[in-house]
Amino acid sequence: MDGNYIIFKQFNRYVTNIMLMIMVPVSTMAEVPSSEEMWKIIQQQQKVIEELKAKLEQTEHKVVATETRVEETAKEVEAAAEAMEQSGTGASTAASWADKTTVGGYGELHYNSLNDDNNLTGGNDDLDQVDLHRFVLFFGHEFNESLRFFSELEVEHALAGESQPGEVELEQAWLEMDLTNHHRARAGLEILPIGIINPTHEPNTFYGVERNKVETEIIPTTWWEAGFGLIGEIAPGWNYDLIAHSGLAIPTTGSSAFRPRSGRLKVANANDQDIAFTGRIRYTATPGLEIGVAGQYQRDVTGAADLFAIPATLFEGHIDWKHVSGFGLRALYARWDFDDDNSPVPGLDPENVNADTLDGWYVEPAYRFEIPGRVPGDLGVFARYENWDERNQITGAHRFEEFSRWVLGMNWWPHQNVALKFDFQNEDADGPVDAIFDGVNLGIGYQF
What we know:
By secondary structure, this protein is of the alpha+beta class. Helix content is about 20%, strand content about 45%. It has a 16-stranded antiparallel β-barrel with strand order 1-2-3-4-5-6-7-8-9-10-11-12-13-14-15-16. Helix 1 packs antiparallel against helix 2.
C-alpha cells in the first residue's frame, strides 16, 4: 500500500476526532468553553496538524529515496551480470556451458544361438554366445549459434586390450559451421553418409538383433573417415552431402583380399590411404519417407604407397518409408566396381577371385502398432530378405560367393528409445563356403 495514503488516513483520523470534540451536542456539555479555552484547543490541534505534516514530508522523502536506491541496485546487478558473462567466470558461465553441452549414447546386448549347417573345415563353427556388442557415448557442444562439435566414443564387446575381444573406437569427432541458413561446412572424423544404417545405427531405429549383411559387408557399416565436406539443402526436402576424405586400403592377398570391410583403417595411423570422394542426395519432403542415392570414387582402393593402383567406385540407393498406418518398408542396393586397368602387377586382378563386382541388396517390409491393453509401448513385426557377396573363408580357395538370408522377427518398444528384439535367421550360399548360420537371436538395445 502507498505510504502517502497511510499518512493521509492517519491525518484524517486526527481531524475527525478534533471535529467531534468541537461539535459535541450542547445537551451533553456542562457549559460552553470560554474563548481562552477554545484558543488553547485550537493551538493544540494546530500543533498536531504541524506534526502530521512533518511526518508526511519525511515519509515522502523516504519513499523517493527507497525507489531511487532500488533502481540503482537493479542497474548494479545487471552490470555485474554482464561483466561476469563477458569475463567468462562464475556461475553464469557454468550454466551457459551446461546448456550448450549434450551427452547421450546407445548400447546393445545380444544372444546368438546359431548352428553351422555347412561346416566344410571339420571344426565347430556353431555360435552360442552372449555379447555386449556395443556401448557408445555421445558428446556434443554448441560454441555459438553457428559453430558446434559432435563426437561418438564406442567400446565394442565389453573388454578391450591385448588378447581381448573388444576395441575402444572414436567413430566421430567433427566440427560443423553454418555458412548460410541452408548450407554448412563440416571437418573432422565423420561417419560417411552412405546407406541407411551407416548414418543412423542406434539399435532402437532398426529391426533385427544384428545389422543386415548388405550394409555390413558391402557398404561397410560402420564406416568412418577423416575429411572435409559441405552439407545442406538445395530445395525444400532435397538434401545433399559432398565430402573429400581418407579412403580404404583393402588387402590384395590372403583370406580378406578385396574385401571392403577389411580395408577400413579407422583413421588410426592410417598410412597409404588415397583420397576419396563421397556424395549423397536425399529426398525427405514427404513425412515418413526418405529416398537416397550415394556414390563414392577412390583412385586407388588398395592404398597409395604400393606398386599398383586399383580404382574403385561404390554406388548405393535406398528407400526408407514409415507410413502413419504403421506399415513400413526398407529396401537398399549397393555395388562396388573394382578395376585392374592401372595395375602393373601380373595376375593382380580382382576378377581372379570373383571380386571385380561386389553387390548386395535387401528388402524389409514391417508393421508396427501400439499394443492394446495394459502392456506399454509398440510391437513391430518384420521380414527381411538379404542377398550379398562375401568371402567364402575356405583356405586355399578364397573367392567371393553369393549368400542369401531370410530373417523373421519382432521388436518390442516399451519406450521409443528402448527395444527388445527377437528374430530367426536362415542362410544359404550358391557355392562352397565355410559356414552357413541358422538359428535365433535375442537382443536389447537403447538410446538416450
